């Protein structure tokens, strides 16, 4: 009787370990299954990049402005600053239309779509020009202006002596950024025209 029970148990174990379907119907091992394609993100339409000292006076950080989407005028801009060590200091998104400003008047009062697109690309290409950077971000003799800054942030930026970066969106949305070591990120320390 024990032999019969042992034989039944062994048969049951073998049955549990063997595939339930005949070999021709057994599923393929996971490694052989096709890997689904990763859907592509929005199409990269234009890009501007620069390496400049920002979070350090010696090691340059990577500044990047990417335009992604279906068209230049309806796309989204992604502004990022990554330190030389690979830390993301800033990541912002805004519509491409944010680069349209009074400078567009160079094309007249009613610029064409092609002219507006060209202007967005031109603004991107100039976004990280030398005139957009200042070292230090706040000069030692510079006076605090309450309507443009929050006092604590302004003082902290001033004390670091690190470089600053300025850009503007739309027609009068100017932003000055600087790196704050205590926060380990870039902050807006001044907004102005």
TrEMBL record:
<protein>
    <recommendedName>
        <fullName>Lipoprotein</fullName>
    </recommendedName>
</protein>
<feature type="signal peptide">
    <location>
        <begin position="1"/>
        <end position="21"/>
    </location>
</feature>
<keyword id="KW-0732">Signal</keyword>
